[in-house]
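Worked example (supplementary).
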Amino acid sequence: MEEFNKILIKEFKIASRSGYEALMPIMYLLIIILFFNISISYISRNLIIELTPLMIWLSCLLVSVLNLESIFREDYEDGTLDYLISANSFHESVIVAKVFSHWLLTTLPVVIISPFISLLLGIDYQTTLILFLSLLIGTPTMSLIGSVAAALTLSLKRGKLLLAIIVLPLYVPILIFGTSAVNNSFLQMNFASEIIFLSIIFLLFLLITPTACLKSLRLSLD
Amino acid sequence: MKLFKMSVVIRIINLTIQKNDRNILDNISLDINEKSFLNIYGANGSGKTSLLKVITGISEIDSGEVVNYSNNQVYVGHKYGLKTNLTVSENLALDLQNNNTDKKRGLDEVLEMYKMSKFKDTLVKHLSHGLQKKVSLMRTLLLDSDVWILDEPFSALDEEAKIILNKTFVEAIQQNKTIIITSHDTLRYDHINVENFLLKDGRIQ
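After joint prediction of all chains, the assembly is encoded as:
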């Protein structure tokens, strides 16, 4: 746990010195939502309100995909990965800490701001709460899945598109359960099973991905 | 007369690495004893970096075996492994955190040795290439590792830094460290023995 905290502190220190970059995901989310709203502005108000939480979910997913590449990119380019592996200091717990800190810095701000956007766009409190909860469980799962793909495409110069192609199909179950929970809440139906399934998927990938990610990183460094 | 038995710290057996159907390393066997100073020299593309990456465990092996008995090694490669948005002292402090060894020199002492004290609070991104290399080499002293694996440590250094590094090597060998470096030429010191190996076409000559 001490090692985990040290990595978090290091990542926060680096992020705090990278200036405006930390605000980029929020800006990107706002722009996507604005574009969505413009494109559906001609349909009925009731339909817009029904679609809005799903639109926010999808926007968060897209922001999450865009950020994935940076999980290990800097460590790869500056030689930190080589250095840590040679010193036997790079193992599963370090990967979990890296992915978690990356999620905290790039995706959590988007998750936090989503309920405010939802309320501003006229969505009820309960649906907003479920939107927040489903994103809070769904987005770290997406980061865990994405970390393996990010590790695999690390040595490719133009790997961003390939990374998106690899991860997007894998995000389908998370998207289905996440949006289904929000939609059920909106329709005053039971949403507990979707949230439970999202939590199970999260725990499953928390167990699998660190080992898969470590193996993928070693392949990329080879 | 007292006889000293040298123990092997790294054993390489029939090592072969292939890339794009070309043997980067071709059936290399080598025992690296503790307290020895190995200089693997050769032309660009002769496989020096590949060999070091295999020894350090960064790269995978196609065939053969590398047994590394050391559990306390430091590697400085072509990429320095420094965080450019952190200061020199913050980077070195991170190394102390990442390394499990208890035998550590003081940060200020190491900075002073390399005449880098004035850059202590400077962000690494504001340092020149040569100064960044110095910071990465400081790790060898700071972590006080038993095995130093350095890829072309003299490149990008000025004359003063080269003198300091040479002095550091001599002291390290006297303190029973094992040093493995790569370079483009043979290396000789007055008071310590350097084993120079030519790496050509993936083979040790």
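Two points are worth noting when inspecting this output. Residues 159-174 of chain B form the longest helix (16 residues). The mean pLDDT of chain B is 85.
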